[in-house]
Amino acid sequence: MKIFSAAQIREADAFTIAHEPISSTHLMERAAGKCAAWLEEHYSTAHPMYIFCGKGNNGGDGLVIARLLLQHGYQVYTGILQHSSRASADHDIQLQLLQQQYPFTIHTIGDVSDFPELPANAVIIDAIFGTGISRPVDGWVAGIIHQINDQRQKHPIVAIDMPSGLSADESSLHTPVIQAHNTLSFEFYKLAFLLPENAACTGAVSVLPIGLHPDYITQTPVRYHLADREMMRTIYRPRDPFAHKGTYGHALLIAGSYGKMGAAVLSARACLRAGVGLLTCHVPQCGTQIMQISEPAAMCITDEDTHFSTHFHRNVRTAGYKAVGIGPGLDKQPGTAKSLEVLMDEWQRPMVIDADALNLLSVYPYLLYKVPKGSILTPHPKEFERLFGKTENEVQRLQQLSEQAVNLQLYILLKGRYTAVACPDGAVYFNNTGNPGMATGGSGDVLTGILTGLLAQEYTPKAAVLLGVWLHGYAGDLAAAQLSQEAMTAGDIISYLGKAFQEGI
């Protein structure tokens, strides 16, 4: 699914109006009708609806919603904020229709003192500002937003299209924004919905189809995408019935150190569950028996070092590996850093770099420029910060993520609720699977194993990272549904990976 900017969304509306064709007023009716239907599904007529409208098209949506809810027997208060002397043409048309049928429901709000008292079972509907907002909200209108937010513990707040004050494309950190429990958006996810700093404002997001013209959607290029099930079905390759283990590649996993062999075991199990044909694990001497007993399907190479891996570069020269994954539980010894440097000089194919291998790149920054082109880096936010520095907000970090992926010609995966995958061509994909139960030790090690296994099967790096992240999250969703988010562990993600292949794609 494409993620359009605010300007592109306005263009999509205009294109639909011109080419469907449909009037702007009827398109507004269509969008607001979807919102009214959602509200009717979630709240009975026992709940009075308090709709706060601006004077733009978002306010026009609110006026249509008010009229439709009144037609279906709801009690409705419609408050119109006088923040401007001018209103949009469609807003005025909808106001006239509402005045003709239900004039007693309309109230003027010109100051904070005009904010109404709410009955105990009221629902607040925010239709003040939409994607057209171009500057932070201030003055008494900011006071109205604060008044609405003060009601959050007592009343559900539903935002129409966008929580008022939230920019679709830029950071709105430290500015007044409605803190909605639900956001009803139209046709597409907005970039703002996918950023952690906005989670308290958007609440649960529902994307409602309103029939924007498909030609605009397919023909318009975008930078940001939402990686969903439909995309995964185009990436996934079913197995050849005449295949053998050599068909699906031989992976080398360099992982583990004294006290951290669990990370290596989890990664190895995930790599095998991801479908790799053969797996060899390079581990320190202290980890050989642990790996052989814990995962007998994996072959094992023992380092010369007892507690750490410092000579793994010697194992890639003649073994015929299709992919290398490195980092889980590796530790940050100087000898490990030296071996990593030689490995990257000799291994000229894409590899998966995670955990302590990423930390070594941040300790020895020159190594970052030796990473083979097309490799996959998998930092969590703190690892990303250590690699590339701090940013003031999530939008800046996303821009930095994309710039580094392009400059270094790497795939950089920034972990989070909507894990972002930045590609060397400048595109960024957000993953839509996963849940908070995956915030547990070892989850990242599992992901490294999956990515290494897919890369060894000769998926392209882009296909491997998109499919791997999606399967990882979907397996986590299956595990959480069965076990709860609280009780699941990283090993459970591996256990449900087979089901993720079966049911997810």
Automatic annotation (TrEMBL):
**For binding (6S)-NADPHX, which residues are annotated in this chain's numbering?**
57-61, 130-136, 161, 263, 329, 380, 445
Q: Does the keyword NAD apply?
A: yes
Catalytic activity line of the entry: (6S)-NADPHX + ADP = AMP + phosphate + NADPH + H(+); (6R)-NADHX = (6S)-NADHX; (6R)-NADPHX = (6S)-NADPHX; (6S)-NADHX + ADP = AMP + phosphate + NADH + H(+)
All residue ranges annotated as the YjeF N-terminal domain in the record: 9-218
Names of the cofactor(s): Mg(2+); K(+)
What are the recorded Gene Ontology BP terms? metabolite repair; nicotinamide nucleotide metabolic process
Spell out the SUPFAM superfamilies in the cross-references: Ribokinase-like, YjeF N-terminal domain-like
Q: What does the UniProt keyword field contain?
A: ATP-binding, Isomerase, Lyase, Metal-binding, Multifunctional enzyme, NAD, NADP, Nucleotide-binding, Potassium
Q: PROSITE patterns under this entry?
A: YJEF_C_2, YJEF_C_3, YJEF_N
Annotated binding of K(+), by residue: 58, 126, 164
- Where in this chain does the record put each YjeF C-terminal domain? 228-504
Note describing how the cofactor binds: Binds 1 potassium ion per subunit.
* Residue numbers binding AMP: 415-419, 444
Which InterPro entries does the UniProt record give? Answer: Carbohydrate_kinase_pred_CS, CARKD, Nnr, Ribokinase-like, YjeF_N_dom, YjeF_N_dom_sf
Pfam families, alphabetized: Carb_kinase (PF01256), YjeF_N (PF03853)
Role of this protein: Catalyzes the dehydration of the S-form of NAD(P)HX at the expense of ADP, which is converted to AMP. Together with NAD(P)HX epimerase, which catalyzes the epimerization of the S- and R-forms, the enzyme allows the repair of both epimers of NAD(P)HX, a damaged form of NAD(P)H that is a result of enzymatic or heat-dependent hydration.
Entry-linked NCBIfam families: yjeF_cterm, yjeF_nterm
Quaternary state and interactors: Homotetramer.
Name the chain's protein: Bifunctional NAD(P)H-hydrate repair enzyme
